[in-house]
Amino acid sequence: MPAPDDDLHVPLSLPAGRSTLLLIDLQEEHRLDLRYLVEGYEAVLARCAALLAAARAARMQVAHAAFLRDFARVPPRPFEPRDEDGAPAFSAPGSRLTDICPEVAPAPGEPVILKNDLSCFTDEDFVALLADPPDWLIVCGVWTEACVAATVRDAVARGIHVLLVKDACGSGTATMHQSAVINLANRLYGGAVCDTDTAVRLIAGAEARAWRLRGAAPLRFEAETIASTWAAL
C-alpha cells in the first residue's frame, strides 16, 4: 500500500494569538493502573511537556483536560462498567490515579477541565473557555482512539482547525494509537498532522511543513503498513 503522498505536506503557520494547546487526560492512571496503561507513556509525557513549555514561552492559551468519572455530576449510564462496589471502573473521584502527571502539571491560571465523557466538548466549562473559538486547537494526550478522537471530531464539527500532534498522543498499544491517528487524518477537514518538533516550531511562530488533508479518506492501509503510513504523516 502506498505511503501518504508527500504533496500533502505543505507549509503551515499558526495565526498569532489565535491558537490553543489542549492536553488531554495525561493522568497517573495511564502508568500506574494495569488496566489502563499507555504504551510508551513516558515518551508521550515528555513530548507533551515540550509542547507545554513552547506554548508557555509563546504566551499561548493552554487548557488541561482530565477524566473524572463523577456519578454525583453525571449518573451511571446504561452498560457503563463499574467496580464490584458500584464505583466507577476508571477515573474515580478521590483516587490519586486521576491526578495530572507532574511532568505536565497545570501552572497557576491555566484552566483544568474535569470531564465526565470522552470529548472535552461535553463539558460546559470547556465550551465556555472556547466561547471565542481559536482558529487552531493543538491537540495531544491519550487515548488516541477515545478521548482524543472524540474531541478532535467535535472541534472539526465546530469549525475549529485541529493540529494533531501524532507522536504526543498514545493508546494501549502502538498499533491502536497509529491506526487511530490515520483514521483521524483521513477526516481531519481543515486540519493538519505533524510531530512534536514541528509543532514546537509552529507554536514559536515559525512556518513548517505539515500533513494536511486534501479531499476525503486518501489513506489506505493494511495491518502490515500501519506503522509506515503513520510515520509518513
Characterization of the model:
The chain has one domain: Rossmann fold, CATH 3.40.50. The chain has helices at 29-32, 41-57, 124-129, 144-157, 174-185, 196-203, 226-232, and strands spanning 9-12, 19-24, 61-67, 112-115, 136-142, 161-170, 192-194, 208-212. Helices cover 29% and strands 20% of the residues. Helix 4 (144-157) links the parallel strand 5 and strand 6 (161-170). The chain is globular, with a radius of gyration of 17 Å. It has an 8-stranded mixed beta sheet with strand order 1-8-7-6-5-2-3-4, with helices on both faces. With 233 residues, the protein is α/β, with parallel strands linked by helices. The longest helix has 17 residues, at 41-57. The mean pLDDT is 95. Helix 2 runs parallel beside helix 6, helix 4 (144-157) packs parallel to helix 5 (174-185) and helix 5 (174-185) crosses helix 7 (226-232). The protein is built from 7 helices and 8 strands; from the N terminus they run E-E-H-H-E-E-H-E-H-E-H-E-H-E-H.
What are the SSEs and their pairings?
Blueprint: E1 9-12, E2 19-24, H1 29-32, H2 41-57, E3 61-67, E4 112-115, H3 124-129, E5 136-142, H4 144-157, E6 161-170, H5 174-185, E7 192-194, H6 196-203, E8 208-212, H7 226-232
Parallel strand pairs: 2-3, 2-5, 3-4, 5-6, 6-7
Antiparallel strand pairs: 1-8, 7-8
